Amino acid sequence: MSCEPALRQYFAQFDGTKKDFSTEAEHLFDNLVHEKFTLTLTDGTSVSRDAVKEMHADQLSKGNIATLVHFREIGFECVDAKFAVQNDREGIYKITHLIYSIEDGKIASSQEVDDSSELTSFLLTLHEHVKAIHKIPK
């Protein structure tokens, strides 16, 4: 089952209006992101679900806009996604590229992709996700 509709619904909360996260956005986040979720940044740093939730709450309170640029299923329970975050008032515009692994219809892990050498990073990230999904030893 694809998490794309839930992701689009969640991103729709980031419409440029300053909002409190404890409204509908938190409920949508909880329906989208698995309890055991972790985000791995390109430098190898792991970010917890709670830290990501706090970061998103901050982004929402600033009135940031999030737009899903692309969403592509690239394997069994593995998704390649890219989104843009912008806030003209604060001069913010950033595109983030992530590989999601899906478990129980929710995003269980996310790996940030360094697009400076996109193909190499993508292949390494995909390999790690396939190993994790199939529990292949390192």
Describe the structure.
The longest helix has 16 residues, at 118-133. The protein has four helices and six strands. The model has no long low-confidence stretch (mean pLDDT 87). A hairpin with a 2-residue loop joins strand 3 (65-75) and strand 4 (78-87). A six-stranded mixed β-sheet has the order 2-1-6-5-4-3. The chain is of the alpha+beta class and 138 residues long.
List the helices and strands and how they pair.
Blueprint: H1 4-11, H2 24-32, E1 33-40, E2 46-48, H3 49-61, E3 65-75, E4 78-87, E5 92-103, E6 106-112, H4 118-133
Parallel strand pairs: 1-6
Antiparallel strand pairs: 1-2, 3-4, 4-5, 5-6
Helix pairs in contact: 1-2
